[in-house]
Amino acid sequence: MADGQPFDSRDGEIWFDGAFVPWSDAKVHVLTHGLHYASAVFEGERAYGGVIFKMHEHNQRLVNSGKLLGFDIPFSVDEIDRACEATLARQGFEDAYIRPIAWRGSEMMGVAAQSNTIHLAIAVWQWPSYFDPAERLKGIRVDLAEWRRPDPRTAPSKAKATGLYMICTLSKHAAERKGYADALMLDWRGQVAECTGANVFFVKDGAIHTPTPDCFLDGITRRTVIGLAKARGIEVIERAIMPEELDGFEECFICGTAAEVTPVSEIAQHRFAVGDITKTLMNDYAAAVRPAPKAAVAAA
Ligand SMILES: Cc1ncc(COP(=O)(O)O)c(C=O)c1O
To answer: Pfam families this protein is in (predicted)?
Structure first.
């Protein structure tokens, strides 16, 4: 652990099934369906200046992810919104990471667990930069993963489901062992898909190219960045991108709630510049996530 404090013994409280519990007491039993069979879905959200960016969209995706795994979270999106805000306030942070997670409980322990209770917990902690801040500005080094994103007929790829992250951890561990910061995964067809916790964008001749999200997460940050690029008059082309094309791109960046907009300097043997479009979108994203000053909101 970078700061020496394991995640199961930190200070503060965690929202757990509708009530706050001391951080160290927010536990599940080892016989929990979600732990054994990955019947769990989660979100990653960030608060800036005390306001959770795109909170409602994240919590809507959380509820949808549960439905894709065949369960209903026993709280509405609005209730989850309020719980996220309350947890952030309780922890007393302005800038923080918010992690809601929902999972199938312990009533049945076979693969089938049709009537297991569904639980929801929300934890908030400070997570300043997903990548080393100095590395981040120079552009991170990314490896090409051996593991691929699955066919949507193999797994519900639109769900932010814990099971899908097994592929991400395998890929990121392999990349880190080789000295890279992250891994870019291809999809089951061999097309460029996404990184282990972020979507990927490329720049060529003033236009942005990004893979069509037909078998991986269409990130909320991805959609935000596409909007920011279009607002600047930059053309955004969503299409199938083959790994053979990587040499033809001038810039590359990844984006996600945790990663924000992070330039990429290398993907395996391919090299990219930290260029103007990447820098512009890094700055535009940093501005977009900051809540408007209260006086400006009142005047609007
Ligand atoms: C695998 C993966 N792809 C993409 C993203 C980006 O999604 P978002 O921008 O909604 O955080 C994430 C982050 O949650 C992720 O884990």
So the answer is: Aminotran_4 (PF01063)
